[in-house]
Design goal:
Layout (H helix, E strand, L loop, with lengths): L8 H9 L9 H16 L5 H20 L6
């Protein structure tokens, strides 16, 4: 059995709360992200390194959309 990379729901909530965008700071988005991380962990065809990479990509996008004004980019 491969090891899992657990992302606490509270971490996801806190990142989403940092956003001024209601589209991100939204219970449905928080639940969707939590489910995405669970799906990544449950995927048997991904090794630990692939899971870490995928989770980092999702986190990076979450951070970009929560902390930066994309209209200025």
């Amino acid at each position: 059995m491969q090891s899992k990379i657990d992302i606490p729901l509270e971490v996801i909530k806190e990142l989403c709360r940092q956003s001024e965008m209601w589209e991100i700071n939204n219970p449905r988005v928080i639940a969707m992200l939590d489910n995405i991380f669970k799906c990544i962990n449950d995927e048997e065809n991904l090794d630990k390194d692939s899971k870490e990479t995928f989770i980092n990509i999702v986190f990076s996008n979450l951070i970009i959309y929560t902390r930066y004004d994309l209209n200025k980019v």
